[in-house]
Sequence to fold (619 residues):
Amino acid sequence: MKKNNQKLLDLVNFPQDVKNLSQEKLPQFCGELREFLIESVAQTGGHFGSNLGVVELTVALHRVFDAPKDLLIWDVGHQAYPHKILTGRKDRIHTIRKKGGLAPFPKREESEYDAFSVGHSSTSISAAVGMAIANKEKKDAPQVVAIIGDGALTGGMAFEALNYAGDANVNMLVVLNDNKMSISPNVGGMGKYLTRLISSPSYVNFRAKGREILDSIPAIGKLARKAEEYAKGMITPGTLFEELGFEYYGPIDGHDVNELVEVLSDLKKIRGPKILHIITKKGKGYVPAEEDEFSLHAVKPFDPITGKKNGDGKNKINYTNVFSEWICDVGEKDKNICVVTPAMCSGSGLIDFSKKFPDRYYDVGIAEQHAVTFSAGLACQGKKPVVAIYSSFLQRAYDQLIHDVALQKLNVLFAIDRAGIVGPDGATHNGNLDLSYLRIVPNLVIMVPANKNECYSMLETGYNYPGPAAVRYPRGGSSDEFRKTECNFLKIGKAEIVRKGKDIAILSFGTLLENCAKAAENLDATLVNMRFVKPLDEELIKHLSKTHKYFVTIEDNSIVGGAGSAVNEFVLNNDLNVKVKNLGLPDEFLPHGTREEILTEVGLDEEGIFNSIGNFISK
Ligand SMILES: Cc1ncc(C[n+]2csc(CCOP(=O)(O)OP(=O)(O)O)c2C)c(N)n1
Fold:
């Protein structure tokens, strides 16, 4: 029984509780859920606009389907906060993205309601097809629903899956959540196609009417079906999904919870591949987020009344800002420079460049593979493309980097942001593998800046190097002042000795150099800023091996196959007489938390590095 002043949300912890609400209370319930979400994200920060946009959809899905038996697969999973709240995690939602707290995205280990672990885009339809096919022989097979945004639909994998599922006549539903936005406004022909669908007369009603008429003349058979298709072709500006083998329904208002419940209940009864197109507003119900869908895609903690960010509002210069400055500087000087982003304009620091040089700025959608091969094409014709990409998303375009860029020695620069530990976005977004997977690619120069000035210098060096090059830098900043005037071209494959000591040589690759200072001072060790993972400064390594007993390599990358492994190989192959210890990230998928917390946990803070080296030499 609901007491006076008790909220409906207080009564709901699991999907069954959503089913127990009376239908006319659903809009009120959605309002309460939205309010709770705003207060919660204001405290924790995190993905915001997308979650506000799927409140009604999430309520309707949990009312109609029987999760966890029925399988709900969220694409990207940045919009799954309401789903977490309705599936037993309401009390812990304020811990999301924090160390030991709820994961930022759906995660199978976290809840039986999370049918698939996600974080990267455009996987939902493929996973759903696999699940539906795996269950197809079962008597009481689960319903399988993939929920994908119009942005995620720009990823090639989503098309590959649609192409397959339609043809294989898989029993599944795709809910296409169309808000016209990716993180920034969505790009590409598919987005325009969806807009044409929306602007056409209500298709869903027409089809219902059409069916009624056809059902009343049963003998027409195949001819009737053809007539129906013909009529559909006339009323919609194209039937792309239907050509792929899906039944298309919609578009409908994704904020009308009762309509959603009705349509989803109907669709549950129809077999085969179906797509329901719903229209939503990113940021729905919170005015600042509705007015600025772009900036409020993801937020830092803020005051829910004013919408203003907590804290002093001063942003320190970080590596992304350095990239942003550099690319704008080159944009002024070199007409051939162009930048390619797979839908990460703001995160990659490209807002200024896109405004100053719109004709040399290419947002290609969430399409990493295309981004890299497209850049290869640009380079073939004399342009000088820079692929601005996050480390973990570059994993998507590995063969393109090898086959389309490196093999052809093309002049493409990879500006790889979010390398190493990223922090609150956790395991799916950590860039802890790039040095391992890049190091083995022939022809590629790989640079790892130790500070912001060096990052600028390396971008300049890589850009002017006549072949494929990569600069990888982490989220956040370094303690040094950024002084552009101190930036220079670097000599390819040359390291820098930061401190001369004896017996121990610390070979640091990248930004953890700062954390080595204490160990170097206290142990009187030589400290080297290696700068290049490829080519290695072999001459210096040989020289140091003659004057030192111990080498310690350090990197913000997996120890397996990373920069330290390159040193190991060189030491072994050249019979160098040194003992080597590799420090870096363990061979694990590391969880979320702040970057500092995770680095401390794996022993890569000042203290941890000092202790590890101490233990190593005392053995
Ligand atoms: C492979 C990959 N590239 C980029 C991203 C970063 N990213 C997260 S959400 C998002 C936009 C998704 O747009 P859409 O699917 O329309 O959902 P919306 O945010 O509009 O609700 C992007 C580009 C990602 N998660 N995975």
